């Protein structure tokens, strides 16, 4: 019986020290687990002399119950003290004054992107995205702008390595390439996002925003492009009629190419869109060049379509009467409080996010 006494003495001395729940559970399994000290005593019952057996078994059972009681009450004690400690720590001081509640504002550029996305999604465009860091291939070569093409210089590119293989995209047009490489035609997408050029003054910032549009299908022509842009501009500026003109232009990735101006006039020092005889350029567009389609394995004899790139910041400035582009990116809270949008105030022409 001395084995059992030893086990009990050892347990009693262990129980004297402060134990965690996992330590006491370990002790419990050392004793009562499959090969535990107490469990192995039970295996002895079968092998000891018959005269001893009854006494041994009954003493063993008594000690087993005793040990279990000791362990269970220790577990109880530990659990209670953990709960007490937790309650102490998590006590809430309801006398503290509340924190001031600051509701953020939505930046006019984010608001404008949401508006543009919802207008185009109503006429069947889905929204695509591409990374700010692009390959030289997607940004230029695939867009029919080979090395040494003068258009590359015009873009004042930020290159990210000596070999000029990685760059900050100079326009959202590389998303055209990504989209067409990923899927099969038809395509009808817009792609809003950040773009970069090494240029900075009152009307240019090195980071600005564009939204790309691409519609490729069988029998898409310039009339569709004109109709689509006309619809968009009227919806965006919430006007029934708009003055808009297509001016011939050049982009390597479209043929023919055009820039689109909208009519405006100055009234009491403010720009009024849609009237007057002044013109303001807001986007570039054209019919996607057959070489671009070939580069993305789309057969230009079967599929054609149009693309456009709209300057988002300029649209936001026009719609919301903001006259300095740089203020967009100054992170001045007073400016944001004035020009930003309350996230809970839904604008009248807001149709819900399509993304
Ligand atoms: N990517 C051109 C730019 O940044 C705009 C554009 C897009 C023109 C698509 C034609 C077609 O100026």
First-last Cα distance:
76 Å
Cofactors, ions, other ligands: phenylalanine
Summing up helix and strand content along with how strands pair, one would put the structural category as alpha+beta
Count of strand segments: 10
| Overall form | elongated
Q: What's the CATH architecture name of the largest domain? A: 2-Layer Sandwich
What's the CATH topology name of the largest domain?
A: BirA Bifunctional Protein, domain 2
Task: State the major sheet.
Answer: 8 strands, mixed
Helix content: 40-55%
Structural domain count: 2
Order of helices and strands: HHHHHEEHHEHEEHEEEEHEHH
Main CATH class of the largest domain: Alpha Beta
Radius of gyration: 37 Å
- SS element count, helices: 12
What percent strand?
A: 15-25%
In terms of per-residue confidence, which ranges show pLDDT below 50 for 5 or more consecutive residues?
none
The CATH homology group name of the largest domain: Bira Bifunctional Protein, Domain 2
Query: Residue-averaged pLDDT, rounded?
Result: 89
Descriptive notes:
This protein is α+β, with helices and mostly antiparallel strands and 355 residues long. It folds into two domains: 2-89; 108-353, Bira Bifunctional Protein, Domain 2 (BirA Bifunctional Protein, domain 2), CATH 3.30.930.10. The protein contains twelve helices and ten strands. The chain has helices at residues 2-16, 21-32, 37-44, 50-89, 108-122, 136-139, 150-154, 174-182, 222-237, 290-295, 312-320, 333-339, and strands spanning 126-127, 133-135, 166-168, 187-196, 207-217, 244-251, 254-267, 270-273, 278-288, 304-311. Strands 1, 4, 5, 6, 7, 8, 9 and 10 form an eight-stranded mixed β-sheet that branches. The chain has a two-stranded antiparallel ribbon with strand order 2-3. A hairpin with a 2-residue loop joins strand 6 and strand 7. Helix 5 packs across helix 11 (312-320). The site of phenylalanine (PHE) has 10 residues, from strand 9 and strand 10.
């Amino acid at each position: 019986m001395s084995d059992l006494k030893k086990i009990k003495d050892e347990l009693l001395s262990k129980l004297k020290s402060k134990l965690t729940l996992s330590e006491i559970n370990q002790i419990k399994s050392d004793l009562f687990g499959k090969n535990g000290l107490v469990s192995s005593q039970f295996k002895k019952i079968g092998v000891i002399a018959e005269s001893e057996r009854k006494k041994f078994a009954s003493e063993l059972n008594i000690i087993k119950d005793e040990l279990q009681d000791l362990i269970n009450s220790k577990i109880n004690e530990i659990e209670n003290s953990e709960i007490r400690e937790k309650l102490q720590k998590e006590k809430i001081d309801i006398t503290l004054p509340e924190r001031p509640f600051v509701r953020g504002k939505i930046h006019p550029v984010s608001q404008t992107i949401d508006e543009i996305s919802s207008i185009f999604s109503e006429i069947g465009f889905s929204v695509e995205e591409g990374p700010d860091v692009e390959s030289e291939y997607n940004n230029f070569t695939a867009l029919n702008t080979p090395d040494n093409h003068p258009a590359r210089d015009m873009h004042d590119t930020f290159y990210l390595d000596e070999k000029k293989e990685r760059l900050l995209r100079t326009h959202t047009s590389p998303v055209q390439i990504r989209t067409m490489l990923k899927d099969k035609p038809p395509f009808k997408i817009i792609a809003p996002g950040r773009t970069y050029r090494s240029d900075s003054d009152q009307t240019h910032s090195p980071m600005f925003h564009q939204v790309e549009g691409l519609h490729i299908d069988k029998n898409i022509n310039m009339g569709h492009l004109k109709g689509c842009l006309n619809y968009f501009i009227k919806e965006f500026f919430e006007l029934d009629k708009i003055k808009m003109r297509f001016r011939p232009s050049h982009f390597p990735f479209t043929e023919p190419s055009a820039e689109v101006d909208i009519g405006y006039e100055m009234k009491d020092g403010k720009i009024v869109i849609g009237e007057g005889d002044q013109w303001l350029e807001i986007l570039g567009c054209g019919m996607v060049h057959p070489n671009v389609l070939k580069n993305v394995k789309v057969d230009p004899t079967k599929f054609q379509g149009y693309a456009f790139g709209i300057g988002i910041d300029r649209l936001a400035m026009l719609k919301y009467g903001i006259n300095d582009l740089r203020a967009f990116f100054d992170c001045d809270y007073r400016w944001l409080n004035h020009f930003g949008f309350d996230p809970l105030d839904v604008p009248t022409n807001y149709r819900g996010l399509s993304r």
